[in-house]
User: Fold this.
Amino acid sequence: MKVLIFAPHPDDAELAMGGTIAKFIANGHAVTVCDLTDGEPTPFGSREIRARETAAATAVLGVRRLNAGLVNRELRDDLASRRALAGIIRAEQPEVVFSPYPRDAHPDHIAATALVRDARFEAKYVKTDLPGAPCYPRWHMHYFATHLRIVPQPDFIVNTTGFTELKQRSIACYASQVSANPANHRLPIWIAAADTYFGSRIGAESGEPFACEEPLDLSTLGWL
Assistant:
């Protein structure tokens, strides 16, 4: 299966679904993370620092990575941005795309998911000057970011038992966003607690929650 994960900023994918990414890769799936922006400016980062951190986290998970080149703090569901993401979808030809849960406290996250939703549709157009062949990923799934202080009510949970260490190692790579930031230095602890909680809901050691607005055929996912 080809998986394309859109993240508004570097670190969003690791924080929300790092265990699932590691599990996908271990099971032979082709996984690409596409960061929409470079994530800067931030209080303790820089473009150079964030690039090094992102490269380190990418190496830990063994995932393939792209950057859409959009502007942090200025994400909008405008035509130019939508077509840029549609071009990436057509180039990658994924079967499933991921983006943040539509309800979020961060404007970039909300805009990112609207962009992915609309780019997914535009990517299937046949009479267009978009590059590549038409593609309409079968599923658009949502991961839960950390900005909105809610307990997610997921549509499904992925058992990430055995992959939490890789997830935590990838998160630790983003020192400028976590350990160097007094507001976030306990974030890995909170993430670990959430993984344990969602794992307990499915009888596993750890788990990550997801939402999907469309019905899932479990047989096509290889689950039945």
In short: The mean pLDDT is 95.
